[in-house]
Amino acid sequence: KQEVTQIPAALSVPEGENLVLNCSFTDSAIYNLQWFRQDPGKGLTSLLLIQSSQREQTSGRLNASLDKSSGRSTLYIAASQPGDSATYLCAVIGNYGQNFVFGPGTRLSVLP
Amino acid sequence: DTEVTQTPKHLVMGMTNKKSLKCEQHMGHRAMYWYKQKAKKPPELMFVYSYEKLSINESVPSRFSPECPNSSLLNLHLHALQPEDSALYLCASSQFRDRSVNYGYTFGSGTRLTVV
Questions:
Q1: Which of A42, A111, B70, B92 is the most buried (most CB within 10 A)?
Q2: Of A34, A44, A103, Cβ closest to residue B90
Q3: What pLDDT score does A106 carry?
Q4: B16 Cβ partners below 8 Å, 6+ apart?
Q5: How far apart are CA A31 and CA B100, in angstroms?
Q6: Which is it for strands A106-111 and A44-51: parallel, antiparallel or unpaired?
Q7: What angle do CA A100, A24, A85 make, to 5 degrees?
Q8: Contact list, A10 vs chain B (CB under 8 Å)
Q9: Strands (DSSP E) along chain B, which ranges?
Q10: Cβ separation of B99 and A41 shorter than 8 Å?
Q11: What confidence score (pLDDT) does residue B33 get?
């Protein structure tokens, strides 16, 4: 059974820092991995989708990498801003039509 | 249109009430999902519809009744809920349910449900 973990559980940093959020999964037979952002009490906003054949994806100040063999993905946030404060969730979908499995999330607070 | 729209955004209901949550997408996605999310927890899958047919029910109590009247619309009918059912209910859609999910999931903004 696929299990997804995220480290750290919470992170508080001053504005301007570069950040790395980690996501680990136990079964490397994944089809894709998706990073989401969630503001308190709101829905999930898709940030980046990495297909299993890809190594990384970039969008603006965000860069996500995927290492299937080691069961890891990282989300890199450059030059963090207070508006980046949110919970970041990674989710994986398996090769055989399994549904999304979410990690528990990393709660990020960027202080002005 | 690249959105999943959920209504209402907030709902307060008594334990004897009947209410419905609505979810709509016009992206041509053929898989739609209901998730339940408690505070500070990740979303938990409730139901999956594929081509308007229920394909997964994650042992959800019968007081929750899903319905997919057409390929764009997904409803969740609520009856005789308990206070512990209070949560954020999220709807999502994807191109397909199987391994050809090339574009990931799109989530709605959710309905905040409070059962009193």
A1: B92
A2: A44
A3: 97
A4: B80
A5: 9
A6: unpaired
A7: 80
A8: none
A9: 4-7, 10-13, 18-25, 31-37, 44-50, 53-57, 64-70, 73-79, 87-94, 105-107, 111-115
A10: no
A11: 94
- Cis link prior to A82 (omega < 30° from 0)? no
* B90 contacts on A by Cβ (under 8 Å): 43-44
Separation of alpha carbons B81 and B104, rounded Å: 31
Strands B18-25 and B44-50: unpaired
Q: How far apart are CA B77 and CA A106, in angstroms?
A: 32
Question: Could you give phi then psi for residue B85, rounded to 5 degrees?
Answer: -80, -5
Q: Could you tell me the two tokens for A61?
A: 């100040």
Query: Would the CB atoms of A46 and B104 count as touching at under 8 Å?
Result: yes
pLDDT tens for chain B, 116 residues: list them: 779 999 999 999 999 999 999 999 999 999 999 999 999 899 999 999 999 999 989 899 999 999 999 999 999 999 999 999 999 999 999 887 665 556 688 999 999 999 99
pLDDT in tens, A64-102: 999 999 999 999 999 999 999 999 999 998 776 667 889
Structural contact between residues B92 and B107, judged by C-beta atoms closer than 8 angstroms: yes
Tell me the two tokens of residue B106.
């799109």
Residue A34, pLDDT score: 94
Residues A43, A22: Cα–Cα separation, whole Å: 21
